[in-house]
TrEMBL record:
Any GO CC annotation of this UniProt entry: cytoplasm
Primary gene name: Acp1
Taxonomic lineage of the native organism: Eukaryota, Metazoa, Chordata, Craniata, Vertebrata
Enzyme Commission numbers on file: 3.1.3.2, 3.1.3.48
Active site: 8, 119
All copies of domain Phosphotyrosine protein phosphatase I, residue ranges: 1-145
Keywords associated with the record: Cytoplasm, Hydrolase, Protein phosphatase
Name this protein carries in UniProt: Low molecular weight phosphotyrosine protein phosphatase
Subcellular location: Cytoplasm
GO molecular function ontology, one term from the record: acid phosphatase activity
Chief location of this protein within or outside the cell: cytoplasm
Family, per entry: Belongs to the low molecular weight phosphotyrosine protein phosphatase family.
Amino acid sequence: VSIGNICRSPIAEAVFRKLVTDAKLENKWRTDSAAVSDWNVGRFPDSRALSCLRNHGIETAHKARQITKEDFQTFDHILCMDESNLRDLNRKSNQVKDCKAKIELLGTYDPQKQLIIEDPYYGSEKDFETVYEQCLRCCKAFLEKYH
């Protein structure tokens, strides 16, 4: 989960989905991404995010959506990118009866200990590549822990 669901979270979703597919674990995982805001609902990921993913052989057909109460009741894990997302998600989860999701920063799984995945929106292609690399490290470590 990220602010607008067009940069960081779609990259993380696509990376995790590829890792799961490559490991032949698709039937064990339901993967999605969402936003805490409704700013970009229905939009495709940022063109720089799509380009970065394509450079790594990953495609996505994701369209931005806002997180729902059902997400908190359905998913076992909700991973987010920064402290602001974490605060918003914890606030929203407190309003959900039967919240089962464990909410945490994706960066807690980073072997390089980079806790925050910075928003690359106002940056360059290099910033999107940094996000990709962080997401790859974190998603690999997350999958190893929970597989």
